[in-house]
Specification:
Helix content is 8%, strand content 49%. The protein has 2 helices and 15 strands. The N terminus is likely disordered.
Length: 330
């Protein structure tokens, strides 16, 4: 595929996804909760897009742990295990994900099954459609509260649990040098939470848009720039600007700049997603099949006065022979 064709294809896909995202932006705003934040989605987009399932072809299992704002009271802690693989003809992807996310007195636990279907749109260019479905448990532990008025009957004294179905959907395009994705999380289940007397959480639609490229600098190195936009239409729009370098097909080194753009019609609030940060990223193939990743978030906001930055560690393992060379890249 010539350079001109690649650029043209890149523009077409970018335009399509931006238009689709713009259309989504006109949907009614729904009340909701924040989904967990990751820094290493760059190497496993299954966390933000179910259409990514099966992209690496061979079975791949990854565990990720994130400690956000270390030593800050009630700071978020997230642990997830994901697994995915492609069918023998590489047209379908299958996967599963378990997630546990704790913030203060609340905890969210999710179990999802993932399916994707891939079609070839041009030579060595593919478009995948994916869905993930399962259930989410929201839990509030009232024993962790320290109320000013212990007699307040509106404050629970024990644990309260709520369950809701969950559904996510996405598109993922990739060629040898370009990739783009658009996904929406929390498509169903909001009504279940609205019917409860005490709202432990809300279930807002979250949208993720990803766009990037892989540029080979030499036989031993490559450059991977990308952007990612998060939107839930109830707070500032969050975005990441990422830049990664690959050396000897084994070591990725780079970083991200994460910030947000305020919505003038929405009051600015301080949340884990509403922060400016620099992220250092490292991803290493320890062996041919074992992959180790680390991310360090350095906050560039007032919370950094407490020196509460974030750490994220991941460990992934290929159960096959990594038949897809791009598994090292995307």
């Amino acid at each position: 595929m010539g350079t001109g064709v690649k650029i043209g294809l890149f523009i077409q896909v970018s335009t399509f996804l931006f238009l689709l995202l713009g259309g989504v932006g006109r949907m009614p705003i729904a009340n909701a909760q924040q989904v967990p934040q990751y820094s290493q989605y760059i190497f496993n987009a299954l966390h933000i897009n179910p259409a990514y399932a099966g992209y690496k072809i061979d079975p791949f299992v990854q565990a990720t742990y994130r400690s956000q704002f270390v030593d800050f009271p009630g700071a978020p802690e997230t642990f997830s295990i994901s697994a995915d693989m492609a069918s023998q003809d590489e047209k379908m992807g299958f996967g599963a994900m378990l997630l546990s996310d704790r913030i203060g007195a609340t905890r969210t636990q999710t179990a999802m099954g993932v399916y994707s279907y891939r079609i070839q749109v041009r030579e060595r260019a593919f478009l995948s459609f994916g869905v993930s479905a399962g259930a989410t448990e929201y839990m509030l532990d009232g024993a962790l509260f320290q109320p000013d008025d212990p007699s307040d009957t509106g404050i629970p004294s024990g644990r309260i649990n709520m369950f809701t179905p969950n559904l996510n959907a996405g598109l993922f395009f990739h060629s040898e040098t370009l990739f783009a994705g658009l996904s929406v999380f929390n498509l169903v289940g909001k009504r279940n939470l609205e019917n409860e007397d005490i709202a432990l959480a809300v279930h807002r639609n979250h949208y993720f848009f990803q766009l990037g490229a892989l540029l080979h600098l030499s036989e031993l190195s490559a450059f991977k720039p990308s952007i990612m936009i998060r939107e839930d239409f109830s707070g500032p729009t969050s975005f990441d600007i990422n830049a990664m370098l690959l050396f000897y097909d084994k070591v990725w080194v780079g970083g991200s700049f994460r910030s947000n753009v305020g919505n003038p019609n929405i009051e600015q609030v301080t949340t884990p997603q509403n922060r400016t940060a620099l992220v250092g990223l490292l991803d290493i193939f320890v062996t041919e099949n074992l992959r180790f990743g680390y991310a360090y978030d350095f906050n560039l906001s007032h919370i950094n006065n407490f020196r509460n930055n974030s750490h994220e560690v991941s460990l992934g393992y290929y159960l096959g022979n990594r038949t897809n060379p791009a598994s090292k890249c995307f």
